[in-house]
């Protein structure tokens, strides 16, 4: 009586056929047109009182507020552009202030050296 000689080897099960969860493929064309309509249009859904419509790869709100969804997206994009421009201008102002500080320091050094040269030439006279 072997201790490990009798190994368990179940038969391999055949792969399952994938069944579609949708029964639309079983309907004929006329029934699909009646059920779904001729023009499917853009997908629309309501979540929390907000109506959303899928257009051009993005969900756009259709209801609420005085501004339309497209206008809101345009304003958000414009706001982002203005923020980026504002950051660039802040950087340029900082750079100009640094340049001004450096030039002012150099000017003060030149004036100081000039005063020293004037005082030195007066003493020799």
TrEMBL record:
<dbReference type="Pfam" id="PF14645">
    <property type="entry name" value="Chibby"/>
</dbReference>
<dbReference type="InterPro" id="IPR028118">
    <property type="entry name" value="Chibby_fam"/>
</dbReference>
<feature type="coiled-coil region">
    <location>
        <begin position="65"/>
        <end position="99"/>
    </location>
</feature>
<protein>
    <submittedName>
        <fullName>Protein chibby homolog 1 isoform X1</fullName>
    </submittedName>
</protein>
<keyword id="KW-0175">Coiled coil</keyword>
<feature type="compositionally biased region" description="Polar residues">
    <location>
        <begin position="1"/>
        <end position="10"/>
    </location>
</feature>
<feature type="region of interest" description="Disordered">
    <location>
        <begin position="1"/>
        <end position="23"/>
    </location>
</feature>
């Amino acid at each position: 009586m072997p201790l490990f000689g009798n190994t368990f080897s179940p038969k391999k099960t055949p792969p399952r056929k994938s069944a579609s969860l949708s029964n639309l493929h079983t309907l004929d064309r006329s029934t699909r047109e009646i059920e779904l309509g001729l023009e499917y249009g853009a997908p629309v859904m309501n979540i929390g009182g907000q109506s959303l419509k899928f257009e051009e790869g993005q969900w756009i709100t259709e209801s609420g507020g005085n501004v339309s969804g497209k206008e809101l997206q345009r304003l958000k994009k414009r706001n982002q552009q203005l923020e980026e421009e504002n950051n660039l201008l802040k950087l340029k102002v900082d750079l100009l202030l640094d340049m001004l500080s450096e030039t002012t320091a150099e000017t003060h050094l030149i004036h100081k050296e000039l005063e020293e040269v004037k005082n030195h030439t007066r003493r020799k006279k």
